[in-house]
Amino acid sequence: MAKSRYEYVKNFEQDLTTLPQTWIVIRVDGQAFTKFCETHHLEKPNDLRCLNTMNKAAQMTCLKFTDIVLAYGQSDEYSFVISPNSSFFNRRQQKIISTVVSYFTSCFVVNWPNDIPLQYPPTFDCRLVCYPSFEILHDYLRWRQADCHINNLYNTTFWALVKGGLTEREAHNTLKGTTSAVKNQILFERSINYNNEPEIYKKGTVIVKPYLEFLHEDIFHRNFFMTYNILV
Amino acid sequence: MAKSRYEYVKNFEQDLTTLPQTWIVIRVDGQAFTKFCETHHLEKPNDLRCLNTMNKAAQMTCLKFTDIVLAYGQSDEYSFVISPNSSFFNRRQQKIISTVVSYFTSCFVVNWPNDIPLQYPPTFDCRLVCYPSFEILHDYLRWRQADCHINNLYNTTFWALVKGGLTEREAHNTLKGTTSAVKNQILFERSINYNNEPEIYKKGTVIVKPYLEFLHEDIFHRNFFMTYNILV
Amino acid sequence: MAKSRYEYVKNFEQDLTTLPQTWIVIRVDGQAFTKFCETHHLEKPNDLRCLNTMNKAAQMTCLKFTDIVLAYGQSDEYSFVISPNSSFFNRRQQKIISTVVSYFTSCFVVNWPNDIPLQYPPTFDCRLVCYPSFEILHDYLRWRQADCHINNLYNTTFWALVKGGLTEREAHNTLKGTTSAVKNQILFERSINYNNEPEIYKKGTVIVKPYLEFLHEDIFHRNFFMTYNILV
Amino acid sequence: MAKSRYEYVKNFEQDLTTLPQTWIVIRVDGQAFTKFCETHHLEKPNDLRCLNTMNKAAQMTCLKFTDIVLAYGQSDEYSFVISPNSSFFNRRQQKIISTVVSYFTSCFVVNWPNDIPLQYPPTFDCRLVCYPSFEILHDYLRWRQADCHINNLYNTTFWALVKGGLTEREAHNTLKGTTSAVKNQILFERSINYNNEPEIYKKGTVIVKPYLEFLHEDIFHRNFFMTYNILV
Q1: pLDDT beneath 70, residues of chain C
Q2: What integer pLDDT is reported at residue C4 of this predicted model?
Q3: What is residue C117's predicted lDDT score, i.e. its pLDDT?
Q4: How do A77-82 and B23-30 pair as beta strands?
Q5: Which of A145, A149, C56, D45 has the fewest CB atoms within 10 Å, counting from its CB?
Q6: 3-state SS record for chain D
Q7: Which range of residues forms the domain containing residue D71?
Q8: Are the Cβ atoms of A14 and C19 closer than 8 angstroms?
């Protein structure tokens, strides 16, 4: 059984390493989660049980992989930040991506609430991106948090309209091209003050090492990082 | 909330595509499964419940991703083969790796037997390799199946010795440098005919599209592929 | 002078290797050669002195790098083919690309005809592509030779029109959207039988190891490779 | 002549782009220049005519490619630095490497002194490395300049010994493991004050945009960059 005769096939492996001294961001992202939410009858526009499961999975991921210094999550996505001088899995891309997304998925399934029977196994994809400076990493985090805000304001207004009697198509048409101010006004007319919406929906969730608690704060401002004595 | 101001950070994404017209192999591999087996008191040298969970997860993975034409699994690993002309996720490496390993992990956890409570979330890593010809792909599969045989013969003999009263250290020393013939003889003296061991342990498991049944056969011989009218 | 203190910067080097057992094609391509031809008053549509310099540079390149098995050139470009089992510079992409294009450029300048004084240093760029099978490599070569034919027929007709009194703009407009048959007819009316044009212009130039002579033949047909007992 | 039938082969091209907002260093390096120097009977330990040709080629390279902000050369190598926000050739690696090394080689040959007939075409290889911060780029430049000093001190001493009557083997053995101080002492005993050696030999050559003059200065100190109002 000449196993060694076949081992030359290992030479075809080409695992890239990420550039040293750059911030590594790993973002896991739910695949087809619109359908997942419908199938499992999750609440609109936000389902706290699902967000809590995401957060719990992210917290466990932060705990397991000590090279992660910060995580930011919103909706069905979570970004994990690895510090520039880390040699996490020797910075091998395939190893990092696959291990993080596998563990995160595993934690998500294990922590899924018992009272919502899983209809099928959920899937996440994952990408790895390098950022050469803290400023650009910071812009990345702002980008994801701006995305959270924009989507949440839209979705909150959209579902308020639908609960108020509009069809989904009518709600879409009503909101098309509207500014934030108009959306806030629509909500206000329905006795919803957007500012009073839960912070977790408006800001998403930040996990900062070594605290591992869930923060729902602006990471738009540099003093967030100074407060936590990290990164800068 | 100028989201677009931050969107330049997307320019840092660099997802490689795999070379067209090459066989793509994606291998998921249990991380620290020696410890996982111990923690969950799995049977030695093979635990059929764990293998069945691996097989079930692989079968579901084959079913979900129609570009997979064949899968081969043994121990805590599974290789999925994608045909050369596939445009699975536009052949983007990060997307392919992350999605497959995430779904596989999800299926593994969901199908884990209820009577063995999970102590912690299992993790798999994943690598993607391209093979430019069927011959080399074939050698890859032979390599994994040879690995299955070699490890299984060793482990079967090792645990027979331990069950016979040797310490693990003594068993290791007894087997060090021994040939297959010697191992077969040791087993024979303990009334074990290795040839009669279950095929699933000796050969691993092959899943061929579109049948999706579990085969425990030699893929060393070219007519295996001819029988299934595939690949060649 | 602690040189070693700085040597960590070597860790940032990331030279990719090309996939083993694939055909490597390295194509050098003249940069801004339209301007180069004008500045040096080269003949239209083909300048034999320039083509000879290209061929001589390619021949020397084939001679220096023994891993090259075939070269094909036309106009201001040359493709060099390296066999799949070669370990040329350990298949490192940057090393292969830079060395080949540097040597080719060097040979081009050294062999440039003395009677056409160089006005400035010519430049070539270079790309490396892997082809997983002989069939695809063959299509690559056919692609470049088809490109040679199409451009040469166009240029021959174009300059015949210009020499016949049309402005370049008029000649372009006359040829826009015409078939090969029409172009042949235009040439025929000006007493030019395209079939009698020199083979080097119509077919380009092939160099096959170990002969190193210049062939101006079709490489569209598989028996070309059989004749030279190579590649297949 | 269905050219389009073959154009699918373009899909196999995989030109990587370098990470945005990182310093790009392109280093050209003479191949087998020990032999090149011997064949052309160049002077030991430094041949000013050859260094001048290197410098002239680098100066022309800086002039042609406006994205280059600084170049540093010594011995048979030259490093070109491209600023982080450059979109030089869309940051495509193959394009950048091949074009720069081709033009540099072309300039080297064109500027080679007429009174030293070229025996064969010289070749340079080239590598591209990204540095995520100015500090690391700075360490890269210090590394190359430290290399210049160490090699020049060694070579100056080595050839002083050889000119003093030792064989090359004896000179090597004499210098093995010696400190800088010892080498300075050996030179001093032969009436050579290393400090008085030409700066171009001891420091190499820096070219800073937009001045394009040749500087032979320390780039070890940050105020070098401040003086030239560049980079930082």
Answers
A1: 1-2, 220, 222, 229-232
A2: 84
A3: 97
A4: unpaired
A5: C56
A6: CCHHHHHHHHHHCCCCECCCCCEEEEEEEECCHHHHHHHCCCCCCCCHHHHHHHHHHHHHHHHHCCCEEEEEEECCEEEEEECCCCCHHHHEHHHHHHHHHHHHHHHHHHHCCCCCCCCCCCCEEEEEEEECCHHHHHHHHHHHHHHHHHHHHHHHHHHHHHHCCCCHHHHHHHHCCCCHHHHHHHHHHCCCCHHHCCHHHHHCEEEECCCCCCECCCCCCHHHHHHCCCCC
A7: 21-227
A8: yes
Q: What is the mean pLDDT of residues A109-130?
A: 97
ipTM: 0.93
Cβ–Cβ under 8 Å, residues C103 and C64:
yes
A67 within a domain of the structure (yes/no): yes
CATH assignment of the domain containing B93: 3.30.70.3000
- Torsion sign (Cα): A31, A35, A41, A46: positive
Question: Subunits touching A (CB < 8 Å, at least 3 pairs)?
Answer: B, C, D
Give the one of A9, A150, A180 whose C-beta lies nearest to B143's C-beta: A9
Q: Which stretches of chain B score pLDDT less than 50?
A: 232
* Residue A216 within a domain: yes
- Tell me, what amino acid is at C220? F
Task: Write out pLDDT tens, residues A183-211.
Answer: 999 999 999 999 999 999 999 999 998 88
Mutate: best of A9, A151, A221, partner B, most B CBs <10 A: A9
How many Å apart are CA B152 and CA B47, to the nearest integer? 12
Q: Show residues of chain B in contact with C21, CB under 8 Å.
A: 132-133, 136
Rounded CA-CA distance B152/B205 in Å is 13
- Whether D50 is in a domain gets the answer yes
Phi, psi torsion values for B207, nearest 5 degrees: -120, 120
Whether residues A123 and B15 touch (CB distance < 8 A) is answered with no
Contact B22, C132 (CB under 8 A): yes
- pLDDT, tens digit, 9 for 90 and up, residues B64-110: 999 999 999 999 999 999 999 999 999 999 999 999 999 999 999 99
In angstroms, the CA A156 to CA A202 distance is: 10
Q: Give the pLDDT confidence score for residue A131 in this predicted structure.
A: 97
Chain C hits for A11, Cβ within 8 Å: 20
Cα torsion angle, A66, A68, A74, A78, sign: negative
C11 neighbourhood in chain D, CB within 8 Å: none
Amino acid at A207: I
HEC-encoded secondary structure of chain B: CCHHHHHHHHHHCCCCECCCCCEEEEEEEECCHHHHHHHCCCCCCCCHHHHHHHHHHHHHHHHHCCCEEEEEEECCEEEEEECCCCCHHHHEHHHHHHHHHHHHHHHHHHHCCCCCCCCCCCCEEEEEEEECCHHHHHHHHHHHHHHHHHHHHHHHHHHHHHHCCCCHHHHHHHHCCCCHHHHHHHHHHCCCCHHHCCHHHHHCEEEECCCCCCECCCCCCHHHHHHCCCCC
Q: For residue B17, which phi and psi values (nearest 5 degrees)?
A: -105, 150
User: Binding site annotation covers D177?
Assistant: no
Contact flag A130-B12 (C-beta cutoff 8 Å) = yes
Q: What is the DSSP letter of C194?
A: G
pLDDT digits (tens, 9 = 90+) for D80-129: 999 999 999 999 999 999 999 999 999 999 999 999 999 999 999 999 99
Measured CA to CA, the distance from residue B70 to residue B89 in angstroms comes to 18
Binding-site entries of C for Mg(2+)? 29-30, 76
The verdict on residue D147 lying in a domain is yes
- The three-class DSSP label of residue A46 is coil
Domain count, chain C: 1
Of C11, C12, C17, the CB nearest to A14: C17
Distance CA D184, CA A152 (A): 72
Amino acid letter for position D172: H
Among candidates A13, A97, A106 on the partner chain, residue whose Cβ is nearest the Cβ of B122 = A106
